Amino acid sequence: MKYTPKLPFLTGLALAALILAIAGVALSQDSITKLAPEAFGKHQRPPAVFNHDKHNEKAKLEECVVCHHGGKNGVIDRVASTEGTPCADCHRVKPADKTTGLMRAYHKQCVDCHRTKGKGPLACGQCHVR
Ligand code: HEC
Ligand code: HEC
Ligand code: HEC
Ligand code: HEC
What we know:
Elements: H1 6-31, E1 34-35, E2 48-49, H2 52-58, E3 70-72, E4 75-77, H3 102-117, H4 124-127
Antiparallel strand pairs: 1-2, 3-4
One heme C (HEC) binds at residues 35-37, 40, 43-45, 47-48, 103, 106-107, 110-111, 114, 121-124, 126-128.
């Protein structure tokens, strides 16, 4: 049989690319420790502290869809998971209609759960830490 050195080389490259892609996703999640979406423009408050992975581990949130829901045309879809999609892709800073604005979306999601569970910060300065 003729030896084809190209094939294992390419397979190796593809594997390396795959590993990098997976590591990239893990890293990008790891890297979230604060939230300061550009959509707000100039922020009034310091960025909210949110260590994505540590927070979700501590709070025992295994279902991504709890926060990363889907939806369109003013109707929320609590089953379709949209992890990786910024909230600002769907929530406008100043919505023209009655949909949930971006600040309210964050506040409602974060604070409502903390209140319901009786755990996690409720005061402005505990999330917007100077
Ligand atoms: C407590 C709520 C919450 C849970 C649970 C949660 N996330 Fe997130 N996640 C967020 C928020 C908030 C952001 C930032 C969104 C934004 O930029 O508007 C985010 C961002 C991300 C991003 C984008 C990373 C980046 O660097 O831009 C990924 C990917 C992601 N989450 C994946 C997941 C996966 C996978 C799960 C389930 C294992 C999960 N999330 C569970 C709240 C959550
Ligand atoms: C794919 C589009 C989409 C993404 C991404 C998305 N949402 Fe929503 N969300 C909707 C739609 C549609 C509704 C229903 C209409 C409304 O209230 O704006 C909704 C409703 C809400 C509500 C009000 C209903 C409730 O559950 O209390 C909150 C709060 C909310 N979203 C927070 C968030 C947060 C925080 C993020 C990011 C982690 C996010 N959303 C990402 C589409 C989206
Ligand atoms: C579905 C429930 C839920 C949602 C949504 C949620 N949290 Fe939490 N959070 C918790 C719980 C439970 C704790 C307490 C964890 C513990 O210490 O046992 C907590 C703790 C925290 C803490 C304390 C430090 C830490 O990492 O443990 C911060 C800060 C925090 N949350 C910020 C946020 C922000 C910002 C958001 C919105 C982007 C958010 N949380 C959304 C449940 C939630
Ligand atoms: C549970 C955490 C939490 C609490 C408590 C909280 N916020 Fe936020 N807030 C957020 C998150 C997450 C965002 C979106 C990320 C960001 O802009 O820091 C946000 C965004 C904002 C914004 C828009 C962005 C900016 O800085 O201009 C303002 C204003 C704001 N919050 C004010 C307040 C005030 C005032 C309080 C107290 C009444 C408060 N927040 C309490 C998590 C919290």
